[in-house]
Amino acid sequence: MSQRKKLGEILVEQGLLCQKSVDRVLAISKALNKRFGIVLVEMGLVTADELAEALARQYGCKTVYNFARASFPPELLSILTVDTALQNLIFPLKAESGKLHLALFDPTGTKILQNIAANNNVSIIPYVSTREEINKAICKHYLGIDVTKPVKKTILIAEDDKMMLAMLQSILSPLYEVYTATNGIDAYKEAVSRRPHVIMTDKEMPKLDGFGFLTALQSIPETKAIPVILISGTPSAEAEAKAFDRGFFDFIPKPLKETTVLTRVKRAFDYCDQHNYLFLR
Is 262 helix (H, G, I), strand (E, B) or coil? Predict the structure, then answer.
């Protein structure tokens, strides 16, 4: 059995990269602990479609695009939970004759494919696609939300107090495109579909509190790197330390001050700008 070619080797053969570029990006991806292909796309060295084509060639798969606009029966979608689809960036395309056709971003994720095959007594037929297309399909068919591209920097505010939410909107909407949610579950759906640059969340919310919301965001690749600011009615050093230990980017105690909100939010956006190669939009 012939040894599978490395992704960098394929990209060099296709004339998309030179060997020196491959070596440099490999060093960067190792330092960031991120997949080589993801870093390539985030740095703009290859397109998402070019990466998909190279991965398909590497693993002997076909590619699939523009399937988010198609229709899929509920019984097909029920084969995967939305969490499984989001965490692994996979989407069911078709099931027939004991075969399940799956769109996936990462063809190296064999363990999850083996589990799906065993649990459903099917064989898996993989197709490589882009992160954007799979995310778009999951949002539309599992969450019922169409993904749209923003016209300016975006922030999601998760706050169940209507007066507080209105105040934050009035402060931030002149500078940013603002999305809102009044409970943790809706905030999670908005974050997955919108992929805002920054998120602000209240600590106490219905259905899913701020800490649970952060945990959900950290569990999927599309949202785990978004800086999240916690708003808390507990203005203590212990509460602030707990927030930072848990992984929040920043902490703002109530009562909120306009200057503090603007300063902390700007700092989060500055972080995104400085690390823009880490975020795939």
Answer: helix
Spatial distance between the Cα atoms of 102 and 83, rounded to a whole number of angstroms: 15
> CA-CA distances (angstroms) from residue 83 to 86, 89, 135, 185, 214?
5, 10, 12, 13, 15
Q: Indicate the pTM of the whole model.
A: 0.78
**pLDDT tens track for 120-154:** 999 999 999 999 999 999 999 998 888 777 778 99
Using only the alpha carbons of the chain, give its radius of gyration: 21
Q: Which helix (H) or strand (E) segment is 218 a member of?
A: helix 210-218
* Cα 91-218-59 angle, rounded to 5 deg: 40
Q: Six-digit token pair at 203? A: 């600590």
Rounded Cα gap, residues 137 and 146, in angstroms: 9
- Tens digit of pLDDT for each residue in 199-232? 999 999 999 999 999 999 998 888 888 999 999 9
What is the Cα–Cα distance from 265 to 92, expressed in whole angstroms? 38
**How many percent of the chain have pLDDT more than 70?**
97
Write the burial class of residue 273 (CB in 10 Å: 0-12 exposed, 13-18 middle, 19+ buried): exposed
Query: How far is the C-alpha of 107 from the C-alpha of 95, rounded, in Å?
Result: 19
Measured in whole angstroms, how far is the alpha carbon of residue 93 from the centre of its chain? 20
Nearest-angstrom CA–CA distance, 17 and 58: 16
- Identify any residues that bridge with 277 across adjacent strands, giving them in sequence order: none
Peptide bond into 253 cis (omega under 30): no
Q: With residue 250 as reference, give the H or E element that holds it.
A: strand 250-253
* The pair of three-digit structure tokens given for residue 61, joined into one six-digit string: 């798969």
First to last CA, the chain: 38
Q: Which residues pair with 156 in a beta bridge?
A: 179, 199
